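B., you asked whether I could sanity-check this one before it goes into the benchmark set. Here's the sequence:
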Amino acid sequence: MLTIERLLSFQKDDLPEASKALSEDELGQLVDWLSQNDDTIRYQSFLLLQHRSGYLEDVYPYWEVFVEKLKSSNSYQRSIGLMLIAANAKWDKNSMMDEIIDVYLSLLYDEKPITVRQCIQSLCVIIPYKKHLLLKIADKLMSFDITRVRETMRKLVLTDILTALALIRKQQPDNEIDSYIFNALSGGKLDKKAIKQVEAML
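And here's what the prediction gave me:
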């Protein structure tokens, strides 16, 4: 059985292999530990579950637990929910993402800018597996009011949005997306580095 001491002993490079060796009971224990107040326990548990989700579908049965976290008053829990749902989108054979996509996208308007960014970045993980939701996601991203976030975060958030739109555009070309990207790249809001980053994806 996985103990907290052993959990905390894992180095970052150990986590991918450690995640493959987890038992079913240990997965449940890690999901429980996501609610711990101790940041280190919570974060290590999250990372192990995220890595495991990259290899196997046995974290997917906890989907509803992650959905509940989207509604948490704690921003860390909301972020955990976002990222673990995204990590399991490829296993979503029951199309549960369809039922929660509106709740998921509502976190674009989270009070915490870091959660907003994690929402957009997590959409990039979901996009390859949910083609039928791409235009809905694109519409929400393009209608996002960038002035909602503080000025120092705007370039980062806009770059996140453009990265997601570039991924959508590869699967589903769309004139509105092209127009949005062109206007964003030529609008003076991004520096040369960010522009090159987005152009490399197009």
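One thing to flag: The chain has one domain: 57-201. Otherwise nothing jumped out at me.
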